[in-house]
Write a structure and sequence with these properties.
The complex is a heterodimer of chains A (417) and B (259).
Chain A lengths: L1 H13 L31 E2 L5 E2 L1 E5 L26 H13 L5 E5 L6 H18 L5 E5 L6 H8 L4 E3 L7 H7 L5 H24 L11 E7 L6 H15 L3 E6 L18 H15 L5 H4 L13 H8 L6 E2 L5 H5 L6 H10 L7 H6 L4 H4 L3 E2 L12 H11 L1 H5 L10
Parallel strand pairs in A: 3-4, 4-5, 5-6, 6-7, 7-8, 9-10
Antiparallel strand pairs in A: 1-2
Chain B lengths: L1 E5 L3 H13 L5 E5 L11 E3 L4 H15 L1 H11 L4 H16 L11 H23 L3 E2 L5 E5 L6 H11 L5 E5 L4 E5 L4 E4 L9 H6 L7 H14 L8 H7 L12 H5 L1
Parallel strand pairs in B: 1-2, 1-3, 5-6
Antiparallel strand pairs in B: 4-5, 6-7, 7-8
The chains are: A alpha/beta (417), B alpha/beta (259).
Bound molecules: iron/sulfur cluster (SF4).
Iron/sulfur cluster binds next to loops of chain A.
């Protein structure tokens, strides 16, 4: 018995790991009835050796699949071991891991077994058992199975904290090339179902307090980058459009890791482009938290992100007219745009300058990366400069200054700008 | 410079602030009782912790600094650092002598020091919320042994009480030799002895495990390996997130410690 469950877990965790999301935040389920679990803190309980957060038990219900998506290890034509969990097994695993404080909850996805509704129905059984029988209030991220019926999907939304369905490839063209059975239209349909229900529930909640939670942590999606030849502009353009149309909480970018000898894609052994992935995430952050419009960073003139420097610095060097920014008078939005100043330090600057003009030593104390920021700001004791440096000179100076940082192995974790 | 000797407790520190107001001492060197050696040239005040006086200073910190700043004040105290005790003392005097709102003036060195230390303590709090690993014993008790850098059990108590409301648990700080115990209703401080000289591995053998415990530890270890993507390996980042000193408490990392 224990041998079999061990083998299943290995197969079905291994197949699930390519979904990079492990977020468990953005929900606020309380443990009201003395049951078990709550959400809200979004804790990373561990980190894998690749440096990624382990927050959820991320597994497939099964890796049997009727589809044959070229980029996926579970594709039907792939000769691999197949397995499937029972409903009880998933519930037991989740509860026992959760009670030991290993995880924040469950991320359940699945290959398509028989058909979409057959698969979705089993996933629904699992989440209902967890919520209704085990009194489990921990985090549940449920993947929507493409093609599942509207009823099934909306019912799942009553129990899940987050739902997601992956775009897989950044453009319809790319997707059609590798997964002819799939389409972005279908993804839009499923995202739309949840979005509309979400709005409906939110409206009802304004009138009736007891309306149940519906996908409180919102929806997300993922794109694989580097399997197909889209530009960074295409990728972020798609991300931007989906953020807006479906109020997505997150878009994830996953550098393609070659898993087959398919000639349409990079060959096995090609290193995944982690630095590109990192730059895409940085751009995503600039859009979501730093109030950049995607077109400011990527456009027809600049369809690709600079791999040497981060997109914020890159934008600043392209827009010398916006600088220097006076730390003591500029508004928050502009301070946020200074290379070397992150969200936290920008807030601290605003808070601290109420008590007097800020000097260089104080800026350093506030956590600003002064080495970088100095070229873009003025504060109380900034040295007088006769003429500003040319952008390309600046670029070289900054690169030299922070050699170690930029030369270091890139990661999918974000460094602050 | 006057020397104030206090007992190292939180209410002792607050009482010291109270006393300095009464005595109009602005320049005070605060020392913790156990480290203090009498210096015959300085005036010395021995502070006796007093609940009522501490209470008043505690209230005052809320009025002058606000709830959040006061929380930071307490968190920073839990660092148990002598240097921070002095900063906290000077911080309190500073905040009381300024109009309301100055608890956010990060341009002031005490405000900054307290806020930075509070941040460190908070990081440790979050680490504990993440890294605590319960083991289930034969009688259904979930227990965990930790050794946090700072004294954070008081800060994590609520999180665990809210989350694990339907299971009995104990979290034991082996460095400070006390634990917190939840009995399905309340959390109590416990100071039972975990055989002080024995290592945690040894002391744990004395507790009979739940029959499924080994299965779930194995499953968790194997899950941890399966979910890793070896093409993305980045040990530097891994260790930055999970510093080695925590590995001995993490089921999934304990085998790596032995090699
Ligand atoms: S449908 Fe999903 S599981 Fe099946 S092959 Fe395509 S991506 Fe893989």
């Amino acid at each position: 018995m224990s041998e079999r469950i061990r083998e299943k877990l290995q197969i079905l965790a291994d197949a699930a790991k390519y979904d990079v999301s492990c977020s468990s935040s953005g929900s606020d389920r309380k443990n009201t009835s003395k049951g078990i679990g709550d959400t809200g803190s979004g804790i990373c309980h561990s980190y894998t050796e690749d440096g990624r957060c382990v927050s959820l038990l991320k597994i497939l219900l099964t890796n049997h699949c009727i589809y044959d998506c070229a980029f996926c290890v579970s594709r039907s034509s792939n000769d691999i071991k197949r397995a499937a969990f029972t409903v009880e097994e998933v519930v037991e695993l989740t509860m026992n891991f959760y009670r030991r404080n290993y995880i924040e909850g469950l991320f359940l996805s699945s290959g398509i077994f028989k058909n979409a509704d057959f698969t979705m129905e089993r996933m629904l059984k699992i989440v209902k058992k967890l919520r209704l029988e085990e009194n489990f209030n921990g985090y549940i991220h449920l993947k929507t199975i493409p093609g599942a019926s509207e009823e099934m999907v909306t019912e799942a939304g009553l129990y899940a904290d987050r739902m997601s369905i992956n775009l897989e490839m950044p453009t319809e063209l790319g997707l059609k090339m590798l997964a002819p059975e799939k389409s972005h239209e279908e993804v839009k349909k499923e995202l739309g179902v949840i979005r509309n229900k979400f709005i409906q529930y939110a409206d009802e909640k304004k009138i009736i307090k007891s309306v149940p939670k519906f996908v409180p942590a919102g929806q997300s999606t993922q794109m694989v980058v580097g399997a197909t030849p889209e530009s960074d502009k295409d990728i972020m353009g798609t991300a931007d459009a989906y953020y807006k149309a479906f109020s997505l909480k997150r878009v994830y970018y996953s550098a393609y890791i070659p898993i087959s000898h398919d000639s349409r894609m990079p060959v096995i052994g090609t290193q995944p482009s982690l630095i590109r992935e990192n730059r895409l995430y940085q751009t995503d952050w600039l859009m979501r938290f730093y109030k950049f419009d995607v077109k400011e960073i990527l456009n027809d003139q600049h369809p690709h992100l600079d791999m040497e420097i981060d997109p914020k610095l890159s934008w600043a060097l392209r827009n010398p007219q916006a600088f220097p920014v006076d730390i003591n008078t500029a508004d928050y939005a502009m301070i946020l745009r200074v290379p070397g100043i992150g969200l936290r330090s920008a807030q601290k600057v605003i808070a601290a300058r109420q008590y007097g003009k800020l000097h260089i030593y104080q800026l350093k104390n506030l956590g600003i990366s002064y080495n970088k920021a100095q070229y873009f700001i003025r504060c109380a004791d900034s040295p007088f400069q006769l003429n500003e440096k040319e952008p390309h000179v600046l670029r070289r100076m900054i690169l030299q200054n922070s050699k170690s940082k930029y030369a270091r192995q890139p990661t999918n974790q974000l460094s602050l700008f | 410079m006057v020397i104030y000797v206090f007992d190292g407790t939180f209410s002792g520190l607050l009482t010291a602030v109270f006393e300095s107001f009464g005595r109009k001492h602005r320049q005070v060197k605060l020392v913790c009782g156990e480290h203090f050696e009498q210096d015959m040239f300085s005036e010395t005040v021995r502070v006796t912790a007093d609940k009522a006086k501490a209470e008043r200073v505690w209230e005052g910190l809320k009025t002058k600094g606000g709830k959040d700043a006061r929380k930071q004040f307490y968190s920073a105290f839990l660092s148990e650092s002598a240097e921070i005790f002095q900063h906290l003392f000077d911080y309190a005097l500073y905040v009381f002598n300024q109009p309301a709102g100055y608890a956010n003036n990060f341009g002031n060195s005490h405000v900054l020091a307290v806020s930075q230390m509070a941040q460190k303590v908070h990081r440790e709090k979050h680490r504990m919320e993440a890294f605590i690993r319960f083991q289930k014993s034969g009688n259904g008790l979930f227990f965990a042994v930790v050794s946090p850098d700072y004294n954070v059990l008081p800060l994590i108590l609520k999180h665990f009480k809210d989350r694990y409301a339907d299971q009995v648990w104990v979290i034991y700080d082996e460095r400070r030799k006390y634990g917190i115990h939840y009995d399905l209703h309340h959390v109590h401080e416990v100071t039972f002895d975990f055989k002080p000289e024995a290592s945690p591995e040894q002391s744990q053998v004395t507790i009979a495990m739940d029959e499924k415990e080994e299965l779930y530890t194995t499953l968790w270890k194997e899950y941890f390996k399966s979910t890793n993507i070896k093409e993305r390996k980045n040990m530097k980042l891994h260790i930055q997130h999970v510093p080695k000193r925590y590995w001995r408490y993490l089921v999934e990392k304990e085998d790596d410690l032995r090699v």
